[in-house]
Amino acid sequence: MAVRGMELSRGRFCCLLLSLLAGLASGLEITSSVPTSIEKASGQSVKLDCQFTLATEDSGPLDIEWSLLSSDNQKEDKVVILYSGDRAYEDYYEPMRGRVHFNAADPKNGDASINLTGLKSSDSGTYQCKVKKAPGIRSRKMLLIVMVKPSKPRCYAEGPMQEGKDIVLRCISNEGTNPLQYSWEKTSDSKVLPSSAVMDPVGGTINVRNASASASGTYRCTARNRVGAEECVLYLNVTPPPNTAGIIAGAIIAVLLILLIIAFILFCCCRARHRKKYEKEICNEIREDVPPPKSRVSTARSFTVGSQRSSLGSMSPSNLHEYALKPQYDKIPSSEDFERPPSHAPLPPPNAVARMAGPNLSRMGAIPVMIPAQNREGSIV
Questions:
Q1: Region of poorest pLDDT, from 10-24, 110-124, 145-159, 272-286
Q2: Among 56, 122, 213, 352, which is least packed, fewest CB within 10 Å?
Q3: What is the mean pLDDT of the chain?
């Protein structure tokens, strides 16, 4: 019985101690009532609120700790900023150096809030504010979602821009936190989308089936999410189908003209090459049946005429008259006489031969002259 009484006394003492500690710990309270989830755009600033109150029982040193909780339980939490020993350690976390600060100059007055500037998508996560002042300890968590504003989208059209064809208008934004929503609108003419248009707000496309000329105009696409929006403009021009038969005929005619021009150029080149080759062969050809030049006959003629003039010059005035009356000296032989074959040469009359004998000519004072012999072709031998 005594042992049992001692166990009951010990249990009561433990309960009393726990209740005492619970009462003491209830002195420190976090009074912030802001939402536990905050959405901000990248590049903006945010204030993470953490207001607290102290009780007279909280007499220990004040410690404030902000940490970024890891989504993986096997990894450690990252301390972002710290206040301990009446001193703030704001450059505690390297990725946020210079971007995180306490909201109050002296957090001891009950303001443990912090400000984050120049938000990045990597700043997203769950943040925990923990305030310690022995024996009181309190903490509070909040979720920060840093969303990226959509970048300026790119608008373009796919498919042939002809009547009766299907045309797809596309709008794509390369950056931006999902979910992204796309919307199309026509800003020209009736400002009404074609009746056959089918729009996809998630994929950012609009399919215009069996397009007509009325589908031409200016279109605007807007990409947006919860933190911002951007837009782009596209001009669509739907034209009538081309004349296929005319294009084919024109192409055939063009090909034929090109072939004719090429054939003409080749013909001219071959002809010029053949003419050049023929002229070269003519220049190098040696002909054996060419008659001797006329210059030799002229030389013989000049030689004979000169000899006759010499004979006349040697005659005396008394004999000159008699020599002029003789018929065989009235005519100077021409080149035809020298070219005539010897068998057909005319013979002087007998009386002239007798008169022109060597003694008679010598007696007349003439000088004997040797006339070169000629062959049948008229060449001098």
A1: 10-24
A2: 56
A3: 77
Q: How many alpha carbons fall within 13 Å on the CB side of residue 268?
A: 6
Query: What pTM was computed for the model?
Result: 0.51
Percent with pLDDT over 90 in the chain: 39
Tokens 């000296």, located at residue = 329
pLDDT of the residue at 33: 79
